[in-house]
Every structure is written in C-alpha cells, then in structure tokens.
Amino acid sequence: MSSLELISLAAGYGPRPILRDVSLSVAGGEVLALAGPNGAGKSTLIRVISGVLPATAGQARLDGADLLRLPAGQRARRVAVVPQMIHLPDAYTVGEIVLMGRSPHLGLWSGESRHDCEVAWGAMRATHVEELSERRVGELSGGEQQRVVLARALAQEPQVLLLDEPTAHLDLKHQVGVLELVRGLAQERNLIVLMTLHDLNQAALYADRVALLQQGQIVAQGSANDVFRSELLSRVYGVPVTVSRHPLRDVPVVLPDGK
Amino acid sequence: MSEAITNPVPAAARTEVIDRADRLRPSPRRGLGLAAATVAALLVAALLAVVIGSVAIPPGAVLALVLERLTGLRSAVAYPPAYATILFDIRLPRVTLMALTGAALAAAGASYQGLFRNPLADPYLVGVAAGAGLGATLALVFNLPSTFVGLSAVPISAFVGALLTVGLVVLSARVGGSMPISTTLLAGVAIGSFASAFTTFIMLRSPDGLRRSFNWMLGGYAGGGWDPVLIILPYLVVGMAAVQLNARALNVLQLDEEQARQLGINVDRVKLVLVVAATLMTAAVVAFGGLIGFVGLIVPHSLRLLGGPDYRRLIPLSAIGGAAFLILADLVARTVVAPQELPVGVVTAIAGAPFFVFLLRRLKRSVF
After folding, report:
1. B residues 232-251 near A, CB within 8 Å?
2. In this structure, is residue B268 part of a structural domain?
3. Among A231, B77, B193, B324, whose Cα sits 20 to 30 Å from the Cα of A6?
4. What is the pLDDT of residues B267-306, one digit of tens each?
5. Which of B101, B128, B106 shows the shortest CA–CA distance to B275?
6. What angle do CA A35, A38, A44 make, to 5 degrees?
C-alpha cells in the first residue's frame, strides 16, 4: 500500500518562510483536504510537492523515493496537479490537451503510441469529456475546462493527485460534481489525493481527513469531526464560528456566527 | 456522476472505443492535404522562379538541363549554352537561397511565437534583426575589406552583430537560473531599439552608405552564387532539427510554465535550446538576405489558421510554406519593375499584409 509521507517540510519565497515543519501522511485511496485561512500556505504546499517551488528542508517520500529530489520527468509520472487558475491555449482541442498528460511518459524522439491514446481516452471517459474531444478548449465552459484538466492529470497515470481549490469559480452543481468525481477516482484508482479547499463544509463532506494550516504550520489534522471545533476554527480564522451537525450526514457543519 | 465511470463497456462497443481513442493520436494522415498543398506550392514557385526572368527558359529546358546535370546524360535537344549558365549560376542559387531564407524565417517565427506565447513574436522582437542591421551597416559604411576568408564582409558582420545582440539579450534577461518571458521580450525590445538607433545614426552620418545599407535592410539580393547557400545550410539543418525535437515540449509550454513543469518538461532547457536554435537560423539567413520582414509572422499564422496549433506539424509546414512564399516574393521583386529590382522585403509586406488580413477576417476564431 503506497502512501505519501511529508516529513518536516519547509519552504518559502526568498528568506521569508511560508511553510514550517509540515508533516503528514496520506494513503492510497484517501482524500486529504488542506484547509486554513488565506496565506496559510495551502497552495504553497501544493507547489512544493509538485516540484515547482523548491523546499528549503524536509522530504516528500513516496514508495521510498523523495519526490523533491526526482528529476521533473520522473516526478510527473507520479504526481499530477490540477491548478487553481486554469490557463488553456484556446486553439488546442480537448484531445490534444489531455494527450499532453502523456508527456512525462514520452521520450524526446517518440510520439504518442496507441497505448498513450487509450490511457488518455480512458481519462477522458472518467471525467466525462470524451464527447468534447474534437472541440477547441477556448469554446468550453469553466466546469468543462476543469474536467479537461482533471483528465489531463489522470492521463499522467499518477499515484498522487494534487488539486488547488478545484471548486473555485464553479457553481454549486459543478462544485459537487467535481468533488464527487475526485472522491470516486481516489477510490477506483487508489489515488493519493491532496486538495486545498476554502469551503470547510465541502471538506467535511468529501475528504477523509482534514489538515488545518495556520501561518505555514499544521495546527490540527484528523477527521473533520475531530478537527472542526468551534474554538479552534474561531482562533485560526480570526472570526467567531459555530460548529453544528449536518442534518443528513454524520459530518460537522461550520457556520459563521454573524451579527 | 460515478455511474458512468463504473459502467463496464459492452464488448461490442469496445472496438469502437479503441478506434475513437486512436483518433486522438496526431495521425500522419491528418493535415496531409495541407502538407501536400504546401509542397506543391513550393515546387510550382521554384519552377516559376527559374523559368521567368530577362531570359525566359522554357520549363522543358529546365527539366532537361537539371536531369543532364544530375545524371550526366546528354539531352537530345541542344539548348543554348547561356541557358545552363543562367540556370545553374544565377537562378537556381538565388531560388535556393530564397527558399532557405524563407524556411528559416518562418520556422523561427513559429518557434518564437510558441516560446514567448505571443502571436506578435518574430525574429525582430528579440533583437536579432536589429543586431544584424547594425553589423551590416558598420561593414557597409566603414567599407570593411570586401572579402574575409573568401566571404564578403557584410554578411559576416551582420551575423556577428545578430549573435552579439542575442547574447546580450539572453544575459540581460536572466533572473537567477531562469529566463522569464517578460524580461526576455523587454530586453529584446530595448537592446533592439538601441541597435536600430545606432544604425540610423551611423547611416545619417554617412550619406554614401545610406542607400546601400537601406537597400540591404529591406532585403536586397546581393548575389554570390552558391556560397551563401552552403554557409547557411548547416545552421539551418541543426536549427531545424533542434526546434523540431522540442516541438512537443513547445506544445506543452503553451499551457504555462508552471503546468509545463508539472508535466515533466525541463522548461529552462527547452527555452534555451529554442532561443539559440531559432536565433542561429535567423542570424544566418538575415546576414545574407537582409532584413526581410513579415515572413516569420504571416506564414506561421496562416498555417495555424489552416492546420491547427500543433507545433510538430506547424514548424515543418511553416518551413515549406516560408520557402514557397519567399521564392514568389523574390520573383515579383525582380520582375515587376525589371530591369530594376525591388528589395524583397518590400514585396513581402505589400503582398503579405493584405493576404493576412483577409485570412484573419475569413476565419474568425482565435488562432493562438
């Protein structure tokens, strides 16, 4: 059973530390939500694990290898990212974008094989964009683009899937849609999933565990039932909140107290 | 939502799924029509350009003479001996030089546009052309010895000017270990403007050199037989190979640099290889052909409109299309006001701009 182990990870832009002593572990098939106020370091953590921002200390171990010390190509075969701001070049088709996910598996001289196309097609089926394959991405809605990028990430055949605010800019139906999709994919493909989420109630509903970050450090981690305590959340977010129960599910619901 | 994922694919539909998956692959057949059309355009342009001129050589004679030269056999018809001289010493070298120049400018233009993710990027933007112009003007105005190891001073000096400028741009644009797009473009524009201004200053101080360097800048053909072709060819072969090998990475780079890194692309290496390769090609051809504008812009964009953005197809198509376009432009340049010649850069702009606007209007969708 593979798992991702972050061990005392630290990182920062210049001399300013953004992440300090971050340690956590996520198993295959498990979804971990990264929560915390703006600037707590959630997105920075995603960037460090995906290798675009160097860590200043610590390790990210997957199957005995430190992801942070792998060459970019090898890391991209293990870790895929769905970024928050999705920039897709308008003129490319959905099929072309998803095939780019095979990039880490291709050599300098090779083109996509039949196998690569089948993997990409399977990824497109999994995120329900196969009917869009000939469409230009510039013509798609935000929700469709999100699923195209998710398909591209799956085409990498990663063990670790990182998502940065996957529900931002989506309406409620599409928010629920993408979260359920991710949840299902984690189980089916035994993916290790880390996603940043602003919405604590979504984290409670769709993540197996939650890690709460404040000023670059993990202040609590565990099930939403354990982590979402009103005095802790009120302190971390700096605003009074009440934790109640979801009327239909066995999960907490977080509500600002209001005035 | 998860229903569709777990639904097993019915056996009958299985082959269909595989067929559809296979369609994702950029098949050699896709775009074959466009490739055939560009190659045909190139052949027709080349034939027209060797046939037409102050002495018209019939197409039959061209074919016979070329076959004769290639196979060593004597043709049954005896053509005037002047035909062979005009064909092999004047027209063919000129057509070949134009083909190589057009191919290099268009392929380099496509690369720069992809590299800088900027549809306006062309060999001019990174200062190559301005540097070459400065080098050539210095050679013309100061009457450097006309030959240097058997080569005329102007192209050599232009080549050195182009390389120095781009070296300076790359050095100024480096931030830490990487070369951000924005600083590269800004450095290119700044250093290019400096070189252009300096060129203008020198030209104005020397009325004598003004006309000649102006003519060179607009792409006046300087002659020289096969020598320029042989000098340019290695740069072109190496440059094209390097660009083509990085074409898939260039596609991924269109996402943005962070996503490209997350997809395993060594972004800094790809950018460096592409800048160097495209610049070498440009510098080599600009040195002999002068500053021929617009080819690097309209040829790749026209082919993008017709054949899609995939750089693996776009770069070779641009090279062939650029060759055809410049051969035709040069044909017009030397015939339209014969016996005088127009600089070919004038023709590329006058003919190219309206055609490009027409294409843009015709296919109203984003190209890039």
Report:
1. 245, 248-249, 251
2. yes
3. A231
4. 989 988 998 899 888 888 887 887 788 899 889 988 988 8
5. B128
6. 75
How do residues A54-113 score in pLDDT, each as one tens digit? 999 999 999 889 999 999 999 999 999 999 888 899 889 999 999 999 999 998 777 888
- Partners of B245 on chain A (C-beta within 8 Å) are 108-109
Q: Which amino acid is at B27?
A: S
B16 touches chain A (CB under 8 A): no
Quote the number of domains for chain B. 1
* Domain of residue B30, CATH code: 1.10.3470.10
Residues 6+ apart with CB under 8 A from A237: A37
Q: Does residue B73 sit within a domain?
A: yes
Please, what is the Cα angle at B50 between B46 and B54, to 5 degrees?
Answer: 145
CB contact under 8 A, A87 and B21: no
Amino acid at B34: L
The answer to whether position B113 is within a domain reads yes
Domain assignment present for B368: no
Please name the member of A72, A99, A138 whose beta carbon is closest to the beta carbon of B24: A99
Interchain contact A157–B (C-beta under 8 A): no
Mutate to test the interface with B, among A121, A152, A156 (most CBs of B within 10 A): A121
Q: For residue B61, what are the contacts with CB-CB under 8 A and spacing of at least 6?
A: B77, B79, B83
Q: What is the pLDDT of residues B336-364, one digit of tens each?
A: 887 888 888 889 888 878 877 877 776 66
Q: How far apart are CA B284 and CA B148, in angstroms?
A: 16
The parent domain of residue B300 ranges over: 2-363
Which residues on adjacent β-strands are paired with residue A245? A252
Cβ under 8 Å to B: A residues 15-44: none
- Joined together, the tokens standing for residue B141 give 């105005």
Asked if residue B166 lies in contact with residue B130, where contact means CB atoms within 8 angstroms, the answer is: no
- Provide ipTM, 2 decimals: 0.92
Q: Across the interface, do A103 and B20 touch by the CB < 8 Å criterion? A: no
Give the global pTM.
Answer: 0.86
Is the Cα dihedral B98, B103, B104, B108 positive or negative?
positive
